[in-house]
Specification:
Blueprint (H helix, E strand, L loop, with lengths): L1 E5 L2 E5 L7 E4 L8 E5 L4 E6 L4 E6 L6 E5 L6 E8 L2 E7 L4 E5 L7 E4 L22 H4 L8 E5 L5 E5 L4 E2 L7 E2 L27
Antiparallel strand pairs: 1-2, 2-3, 4-5, 5-6, 6-7, 8-9, 9-10, 10-11, 12-13, 14-15
Length: 202
């Protein structure tokens, strides 16, 4: 499943967008960050408007308050979780802090003075789940202009962009139509990934 936050709710769905459902919608105002703790089978989220960090199981049940904040405190913004700790960016000072995921103890400030801490992602080898997928065993099953998405370890589907049509014979390959507005000669379509700063926390 994929989990995401929206205004006053948290949702989940299969990677292909099916089975979409709202799992948290009560006593939640503006969740801005969410993290999945796979070993514990729980989600954690930050709600700076409600001034708290909370957790629930993967279906939104067995909800638990991790930490409540006051108006004078730094506000939780984006979070990630690893082992027994939540790593979190805060506003308005754009700091990075660590919090015990069971709510024990106080915040530990790790980094100060960031220009703009829009998100936080922990990269650690032990976080990568050992998950086999048919997308790896059959790399060419979807063609070059589509995305292979595994629904489980034995079944996958091919997703095409909105401007791409499926072949009529039921083939999983996508067909790229002729663009209505071709790119002018001499110009290129470019995409950029900008990293403000890499911080080693572990």
């Amino acid at each position: 499943y994929i989990y995401w936050t929206a205004y006053a709710k948290i949702e989940k769905a299969q990677l292909d967008g099916s089975e979409r459902q709202i799992i948290v919608s009560k006593n939640i105002i503006w969740p801005t960050g969410i993290a999945v703790d796979h070993p514990a089978k729980r989600i954690y989220w930050a709600d700076p408007k409600a001034l708290r960090v909370e957790s629930a199981d993967l279906d939104g049940r067995h909800r638990h308050l991790v930490k409540a904040f006051t108006i004078e405190d730094e506000k939780p913004y984006k979070i990630d979780v690893f082992e027994d700790f939540i790593y979190m960016t805060t506003t308005p000072s754009n700091a990075v802090v660590r919090l015990d995921k069971f709510g024990n103890g106080n915040l530990t400030f790790l980094v100060y003075g960031l220009n703009k801490a829009n998100d936080i992602v922990l990269v650690q080898e032990n976080r990568q789940m050992n998950f086999s997928t048919p997308c790896l065993s059959n790399i060419n099953m979807c063609g070059r202009d589509s995305l292979c998405v595994a629904k489980n370890q034995s079944f996958a589907i091919c997703l095409c962009s909105e401007t791409v049509d499926h072949e009529t014979d039921g083939n999983t390959e996508c067909i790229v139509p002729v663009p209505k507005h071709p790119v002018p000669p001499g110009k290129k379509i470019q995409s950029f990934l900008v990293l403000n700063r890499i911080i080693h926390l572990l």
